[in-house]
Amino acid sequence: QVQLVESGGGLVQPGGSLRLSCAASRNIFSIDGMAWYRQAPGKERELVARISRGGSTNYADSVKGRFTISRDNAKNTMSLQMNSLKPDDTAVYYCYAVYYGSYWGQGTQVTVSS
């Protein structure tokens, strides 16, 4: 079993940056894949970025070139660096992990507004 806790959300102006972190309750080196999803009001949850155990990454077209996903096995954390934020990035962001099952964090709110 894996517990995931997100942090780093908040209110930011358009064009600004935020860094989200996801702390895992176990050594993430053993976790097959991790990802960030987001869900905006009235919309379905969507994949933002994912990273494999080997470090391969994939991004949604809407965030390519602006967001960077990374993982720190020594600290058991995964991060999402978000730059050039837009109002359309406003959503609750969720950490996700696959380890003999699927696990979700509780989510952290990101609001991009002037």
Structure write-up:
The strands form two sheets. Strands 2, 4, 5, 6, 9, 10 and 11 form a seven-stranded mixed sheet that branches. This protein is mainly beta and 114 residues long. It has strands spanning 4-7, 10-12, 18-24, 33-39, 46-52, 57-59, 67-72, 77-82, 91-98, 102-104, 108-112. β5 (46-52) and β6 form a beta hairpin. The termini are far apart.
How much of the sequence lies in strands comes to over 45%
Helix content: under 10%
> End-to-end span in angstroms?
40 Å
Give the helix/strand class.
mainly beta
What value does the Rg take, in angstroms? 13 Å
Give the overall average pLDDT. Answer: 95
Write the element-wise H/E pattern from the N-terminal end onward.
Answer: EEEEEEEEEEE
Q: Uncertain runs with pLDDT below 50, 5 residues or more?
A: none
**Largest sheet properties:** 7 strands, mixed
Please give the count of helices: 0
Principal-axes geometry comes out as globular
> What's the number of extended β-strand segments?
11
